[in-house]
Amino acid sequence: MTTDAPRVPVWIRAALFIVLVPGAIAGWLPWYWGGYPSPKLTGPLGIVGAALAIAGWGVLLSCARDFAVRGRGTPAGYAALVAAGFHLRVVMFEEPRLRELFGKSYSE
């Protein structure tokens, strides 16, 4: 079955993904914590932080471009693997550790 509905170009889907997912984690939250509406970029730590943020965004945009051009999509298809990894971490490490620390009160 085919549809005549136009597909959204891959570059628009990739841009939307970048804005919504890593954009919140690598952009909005650090900016907010850094003193929104104007981040504090004074002193050596502020300058180093700004340089690292710019470098990180460069790597992120490069990877997003590669996913869109070579992979024909966004990294969102890997979400299930990341979710499974987080789940295994909690079940195999954190829960036993919490049971060890808090005993019966954690189990209840």
Write the layout of secondary structure elements.
Layout: H1 10-20, H2 22-33, H3 43-69, H4 79-102, H5 104-107
Helix pairs in contact: 1-3
Task: Describe what you observe in this structure.
This protein is mainly α. The chain has two domains: 7-73; 78-108. It is built from five helices and no strands. The protein has helices spanning 10-20, 22-33, 43-69, 79-102, 104-107. Helix 1 packs antiparallel against helix 3. The longest helix has 27 residues, at 43-69.
User: What's the alpha carbon Rg, rounded to whole Å?
Assistant: 20 Å
The helix/strand class is mainly alpha
Classify the oligomer: single chain
Mean pLDDT: 78
Domain count: 2
Form type: flat
- Helix and strand pattern: HHHHH
Distance from N terminus to C terminus (CA atoms, Å) equals: 52 Å
Number of strands: 0
- Detail the poorly predicted runs: none
Helix percentage: over 70%
* Major pleated sheet: none
